[in-house]
Every structure is written in structure tokens, then in C-alpha cells.
Design goal:
Belongs to the FBPase class 1 family. The protein is α+β, with helices and mostly antiparallel strands and 334 residues long. Helix content is 31%, strand content 23%. It has helices at residues 5-8, 12-20, 25-49, 73-87, 224-235, 247-257, 276-289, 320-332, and strands at 60-64, 70-72, 92-97, 104-105, 115-123, 134-142, 164-170, 174-179, 185-190, 195-200, 211-213, 240-241, 259-263, 293-295, 315-318. It binds 6-O-phosphono-alpha-D-fructofuranose. 6-O-phosphono-alpha-D-fructofuranose (P6P) binds at residues 123-124, 215, 245-247, 273-274.
Length: 334
């Protein structure tokens, strides 16, 4: 049945203003900024929907990025989309992304827009070629100081400095989930309107859920405590394994159904694979705002102070009780 007209008019930009209960210049800026992120999401969703129908979307570029990972054409396209939508915005002065060693500056915006966008333009890009869901992750911070040497040292600050964070999930429908610190809200793209329309407000993650999400292919690279946790869920009734290769999908499932997503460190890479500033910190902000938890196993993700822009952290994120269960294995072996 058709929902109320008012509901259909609850677009993302209007919702941000409602959240801020203000029409101040700053509120308008943040609302406009979120709207630009929505535009990036629409452009990326459109490109993904045609990936198999045109040249230059599927497959690899042949280069490797700063992380030594082979770059997929979709990574480059999505990274350029975020830059393009903010170039003409006057809102964002600096963009930091997994795909760029150094931040990208938009000097003409800097006198006005003091916001910095930290983002993973396409998370789970390996899913592009097999038509499975994937996501974009974003985080908004306020630039502190002039950053005259372009080293963005002010970004080396804990996750509670985030003003806004969220993700776009490119699935059967395209969803945008965000928080500005006043709860977690989801929007679904209505392609006929070209608008993200409110789907759920103040999402609360269940305190416990059946899902555990981890790449068990790494089983023998983990610390014994993580193996012990996995043996526990294997022998305990009520757990089910779900792992898609794109953590935005896996964590969105856990936000709705409850459970825990883990990307632990390994013996070779104790810091794990995931990046703090534009992957684990934004997701931790969202999940904590929904009543869940996010930890490295020893420290809350939002408390971690990075020493470098592309710093990695292990990640254990999801329902309070399920995260605590993993911690209990890490901290005292059961
Ligand atoms: P692995 C995608 O590259 C990603 O960053 C997450 O989205 C995903 O959960 C994880 O890495 C997959 O990594 O090592 O399990 O293939």
C-alpha cells in the first residue's frame, strides 16, 4: 500500500535538517553535503547496474594501488565520482580515500567548506564482476587547522571526531544508512524519483543475533583465541555463518538481524586488513549509534588514535552480547 505522502517527501536532505532541528548555515551545509553523498551513490549505482553492458567497468585496470592491491576499474570510477560531486559543492575541502596515498584538496572550497570526506569508494570491489552486493563507506570530519603542508595530521584523531558516517549498499535496491550522532537511519533509492526516501528511523541492532560473519579461510592464520571462539560457535546451537566478501552487506545484515562480523588480525598481519579512518571507524560510529559495539579486541574502535592515514585495525563489530563473547575469548580464552 502506498505510504503517506509525507513519508515519501522525507528525503535524505530533509531528514538531516530534521535531525539537526535547525536551519542554520551549518545545518544547511551538512544537509547539502549528505545530499552530495547521495548523488555519488546514485552515480555509482547507475554504473554498477550497467557493469556487464559496457566497456571499462568490469575487471582490473592493470595497476596496483598504494596497498599493493590490484585496482579494479570500479574502484577508480567510484573514487573519481566522489571527487567530482564535491568539486562543485563548496562544501568539502579535502578528500581522503583508500584509493589515494595523499588526500585530494579542493582549494577553491577551502575558505568556505571546512569539511573533510574520508571514504572507501567501493568496498568489496571483487564483487563487481560477479554481480554481488557491495558498498561505499563514508565519514565526515571537520578540518582542524590549515593543513598547509598537506600532511592532514589533524585526521590522526579518534573516531569520536566524526561528525557523520554511514554507507551506501548497492544491493537489489540501493540503500543509504547514516548517522550524525542522533541514531541510525536508512533510506532506499527510488529510481523513479532519483531520491533516497526514508525507510527506517532510529534502527536498533538486536543485543544478540544468530549471524557470525568471518572468512574462515584464514582460520589457521588467526590467534588461538579466535580459533577457540569459532569452535565455540560451531558447537553451539543457534549460530549461522554468513560472509559475502563485502563487509557493508555483512554488517548491514547484522545491523538488522543481530550477530557479529570479525576481521581479526593474523600472525603475519596483526593489524588485520581493514582501514581505520574510512572503514572501521565510520562503521563503528554507525553500529554504536544503533546500540551495538565495535572493538579491535582490546580497544574500542572509536578510541583508536591512528599514527598514519591508512592505518589498519582488526575489527569485531555487531551486537553487544556477541562482541562481548568474542572479547571474552580474546581476553581470557573462553
Ligand atoms: P577477505 C573487501 O575487500 C573488504 O575490505 C571487506 O569488504 C570484506 O569483508 C573483506 O575485505 C574481504 O576480505 O580477506 O575475506 O577476502
Amino acid at each position: 500500500a502506498d505510504r503517506s505522502l509525507d513519508r515519501d517527501c522525507t528525503t535524505l536532505s530533509r531528514h538531516v535538517l530534521q535531525q539537526l532541528q535547525s536551519f542554520s548555515a551549518e545545518a544547511q551545509d551538512l544537509s547539502a553535503l549528505m545530499n552530495r553523498i547521495a548523488l555519488a551513490g546514485k552515480l555509482i549505482a547507475r554504473h554498477l547496474s550497467r557493469a556487464g553492458l559496457m566497456e571499462g567497468v568490469l575487471g582490473f585496470t592493470g595497476e596496483t594501488n598504494v596497498q599493493g592491491e590490484s585496482v579494479k576499474k570500479m574502484d577508480v570510477y567510484a573514487n573519481d565520482v566522489f571527487i567530482a560531486v564535491f568539486k562543485q559543492s563548496g562544501l568539502v575541502c579535502r578528500l581522503a580515500s583508500e584509493e589515494m596515498e595523499k588526500p585530494y584538496y579542493i582549494p577553491e572550497n577551502c575558505p568556505i567548506g571546512r569539511y573533510t570526506l574520508l571514504y572507501d569508494p567501493i568496498d568489496g570491489s571483487s564483487n563487481t564482476d560477479i554481480n554481488l552486493s557491495l558498498g561505499s563507506i563514508f565519514s565526515i570530519r571537520q578540518q582542524e587547522g590549515e593543513d598547509t603542508d598537506g600532511s592532514a595530521q589533524d585526521l590522526l584523531a579518534p573516531g569520536d571526531k566524526q561528525i557523520a558516517a554511514g554507507y551506501i549498499l548497492y544491493g537489489p535496491s540501493t540503500m543509504l544508512v547514516y548517522t550524525i550522532g542522533k541514531g541510525v537511519h536508512s533510506f532506499t533509492l527510488d529510481p523513479s524519483l532519483g531520491e533516497f526516501i526514508l525507510t527506517e528511523e532510529n534502527i536498533q541492532i538486536p543485543n544478540h543475533g544468530p549471524v557470525y560473519s568471518v572468512n574462515e579461510g584464514n582460520f589457521w592464520q588467526w590467534d588461538e583465541s579466535i580459533r577457540e571462539y569459532i569452535r565455540y560457535v560451531h558447537r553451539t546451537e543457534g549460530y549461522t555463518a554468513r560472509y559475502s566478501g563485502a563487509m557493508v552487506s555483512d554488517i548491514h545484515r547484522i545491523l538488522i538481524q543481530g550477530g557479529v562480523f570479525l576481521y581479526p588480525g593474523t600472525v603475519q598481519k596483526p593489524e588485520g586488513k581493514l582501514r581505520l579512518l574510512y572503514e572501521t571507524a565510520p562503521l563503528a560510529f554507525v553500529i554504536e549509534q544503533a546500540g551495538g559495539r565495535a572493538t579491535t579486541g582490546h580497544e574500542n574502535i572509536l578510541d583508536v588514535v591512528p599514527t598514519k592515514l591508512h592505518q589498519r585495525t582488526p575489527l569485531i563489530i555487531g551486537s553487544k552480547e556477541d562482541v562481548a563473547k568474542v572479547e571474552s575469548f580474546i581476553q581470557n580464552g573462553h
